């Protein structure tokens, strides 16, 4: 395992530059063929690769434990947003994105696994356990998605005027469905309702001193590998139909004059509003976002409307009782003429992957 220069978790491998992008794609070439390497090496690498996953305020509230025949995903309560996310909904969604990343990284290396979610009722922090590994052939589709993990990022600038194709929306919806959730694409009237709800949620959150303090903490974490640095936050509020999160301070990301009129807004939802369904929601969010990345579609999650009880109820109404809202997504085509934000930093692998139980056993 190693890290690339940006501090992002990565594999020891060749790096390839994506044309016109400052993103680094790390290929999966190893000196030892994947089929000859021990399982514990694959588990540790999959856990490291999951460090690329998105999380609310870039809290990365997870810790992986590599065991001789299992990989465990634990929540880290110290990195939970206690004021913003008292129920742990966004923490579980964030950890679900990491779980999906790890599952894909294992599939790319030719491993299938059984996933038990919330396997131990006496251990609330143990969110998932992967066991029962067997070797299948490396999955080329998963390999492609692993590459997408390394270029995916949140771009909060207004999107360009280019519409998102129906085919791309179909693929993104199918990826969500494959993880047991659903995606509702909002019509114009629903987008207006969403815009009003997002405005209301922003006002409620701006008026709450505890929420402001929490946001302030996670937007002033320079050098820690967590939180949101100024380079990824807009230098002024972008012109968007639905207001994005007010981070309480201007960043340094130039946003240009555009308006996101061509953006599509969608609601990711499912049948239940429980911890295991939030984990599934995170897995679906990861699947949607990586599929979108593959299609050249930019995604910005909007969770303020879910954090505030009253606006969460508005979203429920938009779903006409069909399910529980997990998160809103803005989908669009990023402006190709200007460079987007840099990668948001990540914690060093050693701080999120515990290999102490297998040290010495790894190849
Ligand atoms: C559950 C969840 C909620 C999020 N909510 C928001 C949000 O409300 N506004 C926003 O701009 N970004 C939101 N994000 C994006 C994160 O801030 C972003 O993933 C994180 O900072 C890491 O950056 P990256 O996606 O560029 O790797 C959310 C992400 C997740 C997983």
Strand content: 15-25%
Count of helix runs: 10
Helix content: 25-40%
Kindly state the mean pLDDT as a whole number? 90
- At the first level of CATH, the class of the largest domain is Alpha Beta
Radius of gyration: 19 Å
CATH topology of the largest domain: the name is NADH Oxidase
What count of domains describes the coordinates? 2
Q: Termini, distance in Å?
A: 11 Å
Q: Main sheet, how many strands, which sense, barrel?
A: 5 strands, mixed
Q: What is the correct CATH architecture of the largest domain?
A: 3-Layer(aba) Sandwich
* SSE string, helices as H and strands as E: EEEEHEEHEEHHEHHEHEHHEHE
What is the molecular shape?
globular
The secondary-structure class comes to: alpha+beta
List the strand order in the largest sheet.
7-8-6-5-13
| CATH evolutionary superfamily of the largest domain | NADH Oxidase
Which parts are unreliable, with pLDDT below 50 for 5 consecutive residues or more?
1-30
Number of strands: 13
What binds here, in terms of ligands, is: flavin mononucleotide
Explain this structure to me?
- The chain has 363 residues and is of the alpha+beta class.
- The protein has two domains: 2-152 and 348-354, NADH Oxidase; 166-332, NADH Oxidase (3-Layer(aba) Sandwich), CATH 3.40.109.
- 34% of the residues lie in helices and 18% in strands.
- It has ten helices and 13 strands.
- The chain has a five-stranded mixed β-sheet. The protein has a four-stranded antiparallel β-sheet with strand order 9-10-12-11, sandwiched between helices. Strands 1-2 form a two-stranded antiparallel ribbon.
- Helix 3 packs across helix 7 (275-294), helix 4 (166-178) packs antiparallel against helix 7 (275-294) and helix 5 (188-206) packs antiparallel against helix 9.
- It is globular and about 55 Å long.
- The termini are close together.
- 45% of the residues are buried.
- Residues 54-58, 90, 93-94, 97, 153-154, 156, 228, 244-245, 300-304, 327, 344 line the site of flavin mononucleotide.
């Amino acid at each position: 395992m190693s890290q690339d220069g940006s501090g992002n978790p990565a594999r020891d491998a060749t790096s390839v530059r994506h044309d016109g992008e400052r993103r680094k794609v790390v290929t999966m070439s190893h000196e030892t063929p994947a089929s000859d390497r021990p399982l514990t090496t694959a588990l540790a690498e999959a856990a490291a690769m999951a460090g690329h996953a998105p999380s609310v305020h870039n809290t990365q509230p997870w810790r992986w434990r590599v065991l001789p025949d299992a990989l465990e995903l634990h929540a880290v309560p110290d990195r939970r947003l206690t004021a913003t996310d008292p129920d742990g909904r966004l923490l579980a969604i964030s950890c679900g994105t990491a779980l999906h990343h790890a599952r894909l990284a294992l599939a790319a290396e030719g491993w299938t696994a059984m996933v038990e979610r919330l396997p131990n009722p006496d251990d609330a922090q143990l969110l998932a356990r992967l066991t029962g590994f067997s070797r299948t052939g490396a999955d080329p589709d998963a390999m492609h998605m692993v590459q997408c993990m390394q270029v995916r990022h949140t771009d909060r600038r207004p999107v360009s005027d280019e519409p998102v194709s129906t085919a791309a929306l179909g693929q993104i919806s199918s990826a969500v469905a494959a993880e047991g959730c659903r995606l509702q694409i909002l019509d114009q009237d629903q987008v207006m309702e969403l815009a009003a709800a997002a405005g209301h949620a922003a006002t409620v959150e701006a008026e709450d001193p505890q929420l402001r303090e929490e946001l302030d903490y996670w937007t002033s974490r320079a050098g820690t590998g967590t939180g949101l640095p100024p380079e990824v936050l807009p230098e002024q509020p972008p012109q968007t139909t639905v207001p994005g999160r007010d981070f309480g301070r201007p960043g340094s990301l130039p946003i240009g004059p555009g308006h996101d009129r061509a953006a599509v807004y969608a609601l990711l939802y499912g049948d239940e509003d429980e911890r295991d369904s939030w984990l599934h929601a995170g897995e679906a969010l990861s699947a949607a976002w990586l599929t979108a990345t593959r299609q050249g579609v930019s995604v910005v999650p909007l969770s303020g409307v879910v954090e505030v009880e009253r606006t969460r109820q508005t979203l429920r109404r938009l779903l006409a009782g069909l399910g529980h809202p997990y998160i809103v997504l803005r989908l669009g085509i990023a402006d190709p003429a200007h460079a987007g934000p840099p990668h948001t930093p990540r914690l060093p692998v050693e701080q999120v992957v515990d290999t102490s139980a297998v040290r010495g056993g790894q190849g």
